[in-house]
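ok trying again, last paste got cut off:
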Amino acid sequence: MSEELNILSYALSRKYTDLHGGDSGGETVYNQAKKYTDAQVAASETEMKKYADKSADDKSAGALSAAKTYADGKDANTLNSAKSYANAQDTATLNSAKNYTNSEIVTAKTEALAEASAYADDADEVVLEEAKKYVDESSMNSYIVSEGTMGKVSLGTEWSATEPHTIVATPVGYTVTEKTMVSIPPHAGTLIQMRNDGVQTLYITNDNGVLTAYAIGNAPSVAMEIPALFTEVT
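nice, full thing came through this time. structure:
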């Protein structure tokens, strides 16, 4: 723009010189034109600088706004991520707590069931032992047979090796004669011992007052006093 003003000023100066017939007036006009031109150029540069400064300010404001928007977006994303993470952690914690609680309940139930089962087994053993003891102690007094007398027979452990296994039986609480018949009534203790030892049959014979016990299958492994019914026959 300043170059165009210089050309215009020069042209006007030359024209003025030509009209007034000399260079002196032309030089004056030229100087005035140049002065005007410099003033215009300075004014123009000032306006351009102001425009540039304003543009820079606008761009800075725009950049600041964009940066703030971007930062807000990041903050929102960060907040959402944090909330999602917290929710996930809460869910995981809740599930872990529920799983732990369920596991503890199952364990407690299992332990309680095992304890109850063990208690029941122990109770069954106690009941069985008490029943056997009761039968052993009471059968001699309460088992009354009109055709004979209840007593006991003692059996040792020296059974013969071959089947049928035999051993001398000793009467307890009864005097045996050659006419005494000895039978073995059902009795819990006797039956349990026979089952445990694999004894299939157990019976007693009388040979002129000498009692002999016979065992078929296996022989009893322990010494026993078993209930017996003594009956005198003719």
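cool. Residues 146-232 form one domain. The chain has two domains: 1-106, 146-232.
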